Structures are given as structure tokens and as C-alpha cells.
Amino acid sequence: MTYVVGYSPHKDDACALSVAAQFARSDKDSVHAVTVVPQGWEVAAGSATDGDFTAWAQGQGEASAEEALTLLGADAGVPIAASWVTGRSVPAALLEQVEALDADMIVVGSGANGAPGRVAMTAKTDRLLHSSPVPVAIAPRGYAAEPGSRFTRVTVGFRDDDATWHLLQRVADICRRTGASLRLVTVALDRPPMYTAAVSGAEDLVREQWRRQASAAQDEAVEHLVDAGFARDEVETVLARGATWVEALDSVEWHSGDVLVVGSSSTHLLTQVFLGSSAAKIVRASPVPVVVVP
User: Fold this and answer.
1) Sheet strands (E) in 225-286
2) In what order do the strands lie in the sheet with 153-157?
3) Which of 15, 84, 219, 285 has its CA 20 to 30 A from that of 114?
């Protein structure tokens, strides 16, 4: 398996390199960093403008690839490579490299305007999610893995729908292969408190009904995993609630070596990876790397 990393020296993309190397170490894979530099507009061949821009693009690309190799080589422990390409669309250029390299995942960093330690999706990341045929991993802003570390626990955002059950099977296969443990988390928001006693009591009943339904669905998933060969103590389940998505995700215990995996919530053929509003908010609230799976 090859992990393609979108890398730019002008952004906080070192975190994406860190996540990609952590993935690769987990399953003895390779990392290929790709820098996309702007593609020039059509000008007369051999003109001064054409030559100047070509030289500038080459300089930017070569410097970025060299920087990526330096950062990866410090503690990669896996096969690494770096290259640069030109393109007018970064997402499109990255997807072309995914096809050319027969890669299985794209890894990108968070936007510079995001909160430190959280995932921040940029407009380019959003376009990538809408068109990628392979999973897209997003590193939290400022993320730095422990030297030589691997991903040791996979947390699946579990919704008890067909897409999530399919995702669970894929993740279970990966966990068996890599030795990572598996955890299911179901997330919901608490509504603002109601001051009328009768309404407040009704809200409590709804909350309890959700808890029972979510627990029953998770128990069914655990039984499925046990039938597939997992021991019961190898699978954790968590119900996460909070007034905000950040609060709900923070109520879950996270450790170094954790990764959150969420599935697509669209079956539309024109959108390869598409996040519904709830899934997108969970991704943005995550304090650990997130993988969005088509």
C-alpha cells in the first residue's frame, strides 16, 4: 500500500507527513509526498515569461520535495519518496498521482485557520473529499506522532446503517492484519435544557431511548465481530454525548496511536466521499487523525 501525501512547504503539512508515516509503519507500507505547484497559462513557447515561470515552478517543486524527504527521513522507518507536479487544481493533481502511483489513501493536513489540535477542512480538502475514490486521511492542526510510533487503536464512528456496517467489516480486516484494537463510538448532541418540568421529562425519555437503541446496535456489532474471530475484550464501545460536537468528542478517552474512521453518508454516484452534516462536524471536532472512507 502507498500513502500519497499532499505536501506544501508554505503550509502546516508536516503533520500530514507524520500521519502518513504512522500509517505506513502500522502496516509496513510506503509514503510518497507530492507537491503541486501552479501550472502556467498558455504563452508563446520559448518566451521569457514561459522560461521564467518554468524555472520558478521547478525550483519550488524540487525544494518542496527535498524538504518533504528530509522531514520523512528523520524518523520514517518505511520506504519514502517525494515528487512534484504542476496543476491548476491541487485536488485534481493529487488524484492523478493516486492513480499513477496506484495509491490506496491520500493524507492531507488541516487548514491554518483551524483550532490547534483539531481537524480543519479547507476548501481544497472539501473538493478532495467529494471526488476521491480512495480514503482521505486528515491530520489535526499541529499533529506530531511519537518517533517510530504506529496506530494502535481504530475508532469507528458507528451509525448502525448499511454504510457503517460495510465500513466496520473493512476496518475489522485491517485491525486483524495490523494488530490494532477496535472501538465503536456513537455520537449525539444533547439539546439545550428545557425549563418546563414536563418537557424536561420528555427530553430525558428521548435521551434514554437513544441510549438503549445505540447500545443495542453496538452490542449487535460486537457479536458480529466476535463471530468474525475477535475476542470480546478486543472490542470497546462508547456512547458519546455533549452540548457541542467538541464536547461530545472530548468525553471520549483518546490516546497517542488513536485514529478515527468515519464513512461516507451519501450513495450518490457523483460524490465519491461525501460527509453529511453530522459526520462533517464530528470530523472537525476530532482531536486525533481522521480517515474518511468512500
Assistant:
1) 235-242, 258-263
2) 80-87, 30-38, 2-6, 105-108, 136-138, 290-293, 258-263, 153-157, 181-189, 235-242
3) 84
pLDDT in tens, 36-52: 998 755 444 555 556 67
226 & 283 share domain = yes
What pLDDT is stored for residue 52 in this prediction? Answer: 77
Q: Which residues pair with 237 in a beta bridge?
A: 184
Domain of residue 100 covers: 2-138
Residue 162 inside a domain? The answer is: yes
Residue 230 CB coordination number (10 Å)? 17
Q: What is the domain-level CATH number for residue 277?
A: 3.40.50.620
Task: Tell me, yes or no, whether 9 and 104 share the same domain.
Answer: yes
Q: Alpha-carbon distance 9 to 160, whole Å?
A: 40
Whether residue 201 sits in one domain with residue 124: no
Kind of pairing, strands 136-138 and 290-293?
A: antiparallel
Q: What angle do CA 148, 151, 156 make, to 5 degrees?
A: 170
Q: Write out pLDDT tens, residues 129-161.
A: 889 999 999 999 999 999 899 999 999 999 888
- What does pTM read for this prediction? 0.87
| Dihedral sign (CA 202, 203, 208, 212) | positive
- Residue written as grid cell 418540568: 197
Asked if residue 272 has pLDDT above 50, the reply is no
Answer whether residue 200 is part of any domain. yes
Q: Residue 293 contacts by C-beta under 8 Å, 6 or more apart in sequence?
A: 135, 167, 170, 261, 262, 263, 264, 273
Average pLDDT over residues 226-235: 89
How much is the pLDDT for 211? Answer: 83
